[in-house]
């Protein structure tokens, strides 16, 4: 039995297999419509995240399975003081696979210690969010046709943005990927991640101006500057508008550069950009559902 | 208890001078009922000065991981009937269970009851460990 707690739990070969399966699901959804008939997914959202939960649930329904679960700590057993491990032991009696989101880092690791069914980490605090990374990888693979030979720009909150950290980790296993890390001084990529890039000899550059860098990029990953990551309102207000992608900046970018975003966005991508064919963030949402289907198939059919 | 020799028990030798009290705490020696001797600043040809701890109890089960984490140069002698029956060299362990605690306030280990505190060695040179749950590093 396998879990997916961190994107690096999967080898490059396994990710490539999942991407191939994802492509087939996208092209022939009908082939997979009954593959998980009779199976139940439990979505345990100890902290609410409607879009991620809906993505998992839609994925399971499209495979012919069923969904049970809860959302929000108030409605859950956690509100009554039950431990993560006890909740998992209980739910494992009802479900064939569990997708869990928890505000505390490492909660899925604790869950996996006692789980008798596969655990999928649907986000644990600021730590990991591997199915988002699968969505990101499918987006690059479909829209750029490759995961190697990329000048990958990441912009915004690179300090707390867990999707950024996971994507760097996943892409740094492919050949000839260069990272251009565009952020304010206060929100730079944490040093342990940079140290790892140094150790592996992977090229990266830190920059502060999106305008100066955008013309070089093959793909641009925008992130939201989250209010809850800041200790005070002043810092948030000062930094949140620093890196806004608009039509003027898009005019400087390559014709085949793609724009990605884990969503939800606030105002870091102007709505002017939405109709630009290079904007891929809504396709990315669909790819996320497709990769969750591929993942559940793999974990349940192994 | 005879300070020079014990009949059956454990002698922790080659403790870095000054670390004996820390070893005492990490190995929970305060909880033992048997005689325990802490000898500080003993002359050593190899180390100049060293500390030694003697535990006069044949049933004492030493936590080598905790000792290895704290003082990887220490040696452990198991004594039975006045003779050394086993000599163990400790080293920096790959995995620490319930030796140190995670300091990340957002880590699941801060609230989950009965959870093991697990750390994995990430850099031998820097003696760096990371929490198996949240990856937070500490020495
Ligand atoms: Zn931790």
Give the topology.
The complex is a heterodimer of chains A (302) and B (139).
Chain A: H1 12-27, E1 40-45, H2 50-62, E2 66-71, H3 84-91, E3 97-102, H4 107-114, E4 119-124, H5 130-144, E5 150-155, H6 162-171, E6 177-182, H7 191-200, E7 204-207, H8 210-213, E8 219-222, H9 233-240, H10 247-250, E9 258-260, H11 281-301
Parallel strand pairs in A: 1-2, 1-3, 3-4, 5-6, 5-8, 6-7, 8-9
Chain B: E1 9-16, H1 20-26, E2 36-44, E3 48-55, H2 64-70, E4 75-80, E5 83-89, E6 95-97, E7 118-123, E8 128-131, E9 137-138
Antiparallel strand pairs in B: 1-3, 1-4, 2-3, 4-5, 6-7, 7-8, 8-9
The structure holds zinc ion.
Zinc ion (ZN) binds next to loops of chain B.
What is the total number of structural domains of chain B? Answer: 2
Low-confidence stretches of chain B: none
Q: Helix count of chain B?
A: 2
* Terminus-to-terminus distance of chain A: 8 Å
Question: Low-confidence spans of chain A: pLDDT under 50, at least 5 residues?
Answer: none
Structural class designation of chain A: alpha/beta
Cα Rg of chain B: 17 Å
Class by SSE composition of chain B: mainly beta
Number of helices of chain A: 11
Under CATH, the topology of the largest domain in chain B is which? Alpha-Beta Plaits
* Annotation, overall tally of beta strands of chain A: 9
The overall pLDDT of chain A, averaged over residues, is: 93
CATH superfamily of the largest domain in chain A: Aspartate/ornithine carbamoyltransferase
Q: Oligomeric state of the chains?
A: heterodimer
Cα shape of chain B: globular
């Amino acid at each position: 039995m396998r879990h997916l707690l961190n994107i690096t739990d999967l080898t490059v070969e396994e990710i490539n297999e999942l991407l191939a399966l994802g492509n087939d699901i996208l092209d022939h959804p009908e082939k997979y419509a009954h593959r998980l008939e009779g199976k139940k997914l439990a979505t345990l959202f100890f902290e609410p995240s409607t879009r991620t939960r809906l993505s998992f649930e839609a994925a399971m329904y499209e495979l012919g399975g069923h969904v049970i679960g809860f959302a929000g700590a108030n409605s859950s057993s956690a509100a009554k003081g039950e431990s993560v491990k006890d909740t998992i032991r209980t739910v494992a009696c009802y479900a064939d696979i569990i997708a869990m989101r928890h505000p505390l880092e490492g909660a899925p690791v604790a869950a996996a210690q006692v789980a008798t069914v596969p655990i999928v980490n649907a986000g644990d605090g600021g730590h990991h969010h591997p199915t988002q990374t699968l969505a990101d990888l499918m987006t690059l693979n479909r829209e750029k046709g490759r995961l190697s030979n990329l000048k990958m720009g990441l912009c915004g909150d690179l300090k707390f943005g867990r999707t950024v950290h996971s994507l760097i980790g996943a892409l740094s296993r492919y050949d000839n990927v260069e990272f251009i890390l565009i952020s304010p001084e206060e929100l730079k990529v944490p040093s342990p991640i940079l140290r790892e890039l140094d150790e592996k000899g992977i090229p990266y550059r830190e920059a502060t101006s999106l305008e100066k860098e955008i013309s070089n990029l093959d793909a641009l990953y925008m992130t939201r500057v989250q209010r809850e990551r800041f200790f005070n309102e002043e810092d948030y207000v000062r930094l949140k508008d620093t890196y806004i992608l608009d039509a003027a900046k898009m005019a400087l970018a390559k014709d085949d550069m793609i724009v990605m975003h884990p969503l939800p966005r606030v105002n870091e991508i102007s709505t002017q950009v939405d109709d630009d064919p290079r904007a891929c963030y809504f396709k990315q949402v669909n790819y996320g559902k497709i990769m969750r289907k591929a993942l559940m198939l793999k974990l349940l059919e192994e | 208890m005879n300070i020079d020799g014990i009949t059956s028990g454990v002698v922790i030798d080659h403790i870095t001078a000054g670390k004996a009290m820390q070893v005492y705490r990490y190995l929970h020696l305060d909880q033992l009922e048997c005689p325990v001797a802490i000898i500080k600043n003993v002359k050593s040809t190899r180390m100049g000065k060293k500390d030694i701890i003697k535990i006069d109890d044949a049933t004492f089960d030493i936590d080598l991981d905790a000792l290895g984490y704290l003082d990887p140069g220490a040696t452990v002698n198991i004594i039975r009937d006045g003779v050394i029956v086993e000599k163990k060299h400790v080293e920096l362990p790959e995995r620490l269970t319930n030796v140190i605690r995670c300091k990340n306030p957002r880590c699941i280990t801060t609230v989950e009851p009965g959870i093991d505190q697990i750390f994995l060695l990430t850099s031998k040179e820097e003696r760096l460990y990371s929490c198996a749950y949240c990856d937070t590093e500490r020495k």
